[in-house]
Structures are given as structure tokens and as C-alpha cells.
């Protein structure tokens, strides 16, 4: 059994933490931002006042918060994780944040004698609950091996990509692919519906051919039914594409399709859908076309 600090028990974090509990690990939770979930406390987790106290109690400290500024705050505030570290403890950031910032955070944590892993995930709320997340990890191989039993309690496809920052780079690449595929499915279904075809039947036909994909299966169905409750919120995917475009600018490369998809996400946010599931990207296209595939 490991002593694990878990900071960030939201839509993704709470089921991930619950899976660690089911695997027999002891959890320590921070209440600096709000009350710890009652279900985790009832199962044996210990609530503490701040991230510093969590780091003092735990061998591994997992962070699962929305964006780069929140990770910075949790790690380096006056009563943050860094203030409670000692040598050989392991900080694992499972948020999806900037690869550039991650390298800077890792350098500061590693300088304390602790070790740092960036380990963002893919698979959404469903994967978090089922313990089937894909986990992309950056850090030292020996630190990865120490943390591997924790990752195995939360995920199935677990890959050490490279050094610190490489896990976050892999996650940004993942989000580019997912976003562009969601837009491709949305454009295809909109095209079919506007031409008078039943989008549900078109999707059924495409599922048997080379266009078949998990995105067409899951998000195509949501688009047709209009079920856009999160899931993975569209404003978080928009944030991830911002990371991609900022990184591309740093690298001097052009990502035109990513930029176009980001504009559609922005349209969705502007018409009130920041908290929709990211499959609601189709609503941005429908808004531009003044046509809905669900109004046939």
C-alpha cells in the first residue's frame, strides 16, 4: 500500500482517486479549494487543509487540475506541494498543461530532491471510472517504475514517452488528433443531413467502412441525438488546442487545421456551450450554416 496525496477530485480526478482506493492505497486530500468528496472520505481518505500538508504525509502526490496556472498554484503557493516535499517523494502531474511550463515545474521539483512525472491522460470520464485511461508519461525510467502500480490502478495503455515534458507533448498531440476527427465527423454529418440524407443512417453506413472510428461511433451518436452533457467539456478541449497553437508558434510551425477547429470551438463557446461535451463542436458548424441536423 502506498500513501498517495491526490489534489483535484473533479469529474476526472474523483473516479481516478477512487480506483486507487480500490487498489488498497491510502489517500490524503487537500481542502484548500473546497471540501473533499464525501465518498472518498467514507472509503478511508484523510482530508487535510492544504497541499503542503498532503505532501508531508504522502510518498506520491498526484495533481489533477484544469490548467497550467492551477498546477503552478498547487505546487508553488506558500502552502503548496513544494513546501512539503522531502527527497525521494514523487510528484505526478496528471493534468493536461503546457509542455514548456511542465519542464520548468519539473526542474524546480527535481531540485528539491523529489522526482517529477508528467502523466496526462486520455479516455474521458468513462475511462476514469472504468480504470482504462491511456496515460502518457514523461520522466526518469526509475521513477516511472516506482509509480507504475499507481498508473495500473487507473489505466490500461501506459507509456513512458520520454523525459519531463514529453508526456504533455504526447497529450497535446492526442488532443489535436481527437479535435480534428470530431470536426471531420461533424462536417460529414452536417453535409449528409443538408443533402437530405438521414445522418443516423449515414453514420451506420460509414461505421462499416474505412471511415469507421471511435469518434464516429461515440461522438457521431451524440451529435445525432443532441446529447452534449459533459463528458469532456468543450472549453477544456479549447484550452488544449490553445496549448497546441502556442507550442506551434514557439516551434515555428503552422497547424492550419488545428487553428480552424479552434475557431469552431470558439464559436461554440460564444453561443453558450463552454460546458458542453466536445462533441458539441457540431453546434458551432450548425450555427455558421443556420441549419441543424436534428431538426429534420
UniProtKB/TrEMBL annotation:
GO terms for biological process: glyoxylate metabolic process. Pfam families: NAD_binding_11, NAD_binding_2. SUPFAM superfamilies: 6-phosphogluconate dehydrogenase C-terminal domain-like, NAD(P)-binding Rossmann-fold domains. Residues 165-283 form the 3-hydroxyisobutyrate dehydrogenase-like NAD-binding domain. Its EC number is 1.1.1.60. The active site is at residue 171. Signal peptide: none annotated. One of its GO terms (molecular function) is NAD binding. It comes from the Bacteria. It comes from Pseudomonas edaphica. InterPro entries: 6-PGluconate_DH-like_C_sf, 6PGD_dom2, 6PGDH_NADP-bd, HIBADH-like_NADP-bd, HIBADH-related, NAD(P)-bd_dom_sf, Tartro_sem_red. This is 2-hydroxy-3-oxopropionate reductase. Residues 3-162 form the 6-phosphogluconate dehydrogenase NADP-binding domain. Keywords: NAD, Oxidoreductase.
Amino acid at each position: 500500500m502506498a500513501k498517495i496525496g491526490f489534489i483535484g477530485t473533479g469529474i476526472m480526478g474523483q473516479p481516478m482517486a477512487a480506483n486507487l482506493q480500490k487498489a488498497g492505497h491510502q489517500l490524503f486530500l487537500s481542502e484548500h479549494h473546497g471540501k473533499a468528496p464525501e465518498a472518498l472520505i467514507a472509503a478511508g481518505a484523510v482530508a487535510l487543509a492544504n497541499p503542503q500538508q498532503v505532501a508531508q504525509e504522502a510518498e506520491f502526490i498526484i495533481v489533477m487540475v484544469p490548467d497550467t496556472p492551477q498546477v503552478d498554484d498547487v505546487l508553488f503557493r506558500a502552502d503548496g506541494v513544494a513546501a512539503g516535499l522531502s527527497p525521494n517523494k514523487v510528484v505526478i502531474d496528471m493534468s493536461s498543461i503546457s509542455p514548456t511550463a511542465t519542464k520548468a515545474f519539473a526542474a524546480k521539483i527535481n531540485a528539491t530532491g523529489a522526482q517529477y512525472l508528467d502523466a496526462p491522460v486520455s479516455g474521458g470520464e468513462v475511462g476514469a471510472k472504468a480504470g482504462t485511461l491511456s496515460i502518457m508519461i514523461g520522466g526518469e525510467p526509475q521513477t516511472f517504475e516506482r509509480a507504475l502500480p499507481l498508473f495500473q490502478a487507473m489505466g490500461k495503455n501506459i507509456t513512458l514517452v520520454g523525459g519531463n515534458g514529453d508526456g504533455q507533448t504526447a497529450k497535446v498531440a492526442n488532443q489535436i488528433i481527437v479535435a480534428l476527427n470530431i470536426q471531420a465527423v461533424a462536417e460529414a454529418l452536417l453535409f449528409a443531413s443538408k443533402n437530405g440524407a438521414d445522418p443516423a443512417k449515414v453514420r451506420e453506413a460509414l461505421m462499416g467502412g474505412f471511415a469507421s472510428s471511435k469518434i464516429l461511433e461515440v461522438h457521431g451518436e451524440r451529435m445525432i441525438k443532441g446529447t452534449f452533457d459533459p463528458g469532456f467539456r468543450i472549453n477544456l478541449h479549447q484550452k488544449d488546442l490553445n496549448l497546441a497553437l502556442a507550442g506551434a508558434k514557439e516551434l515555428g510551425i503552422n497547424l492550419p487545421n488545428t487553428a480552424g477547429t479552434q475557431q469552431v470551438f470558439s464559436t461554440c463557446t460564444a453561443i453558450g456551450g463552454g460546458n458542453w461535451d466536445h462533441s458539441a463542436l457540431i453546434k458551432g458548424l450548425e450555427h455558421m450554416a443556420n441549419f441543424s441536423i436534428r431538426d429534420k
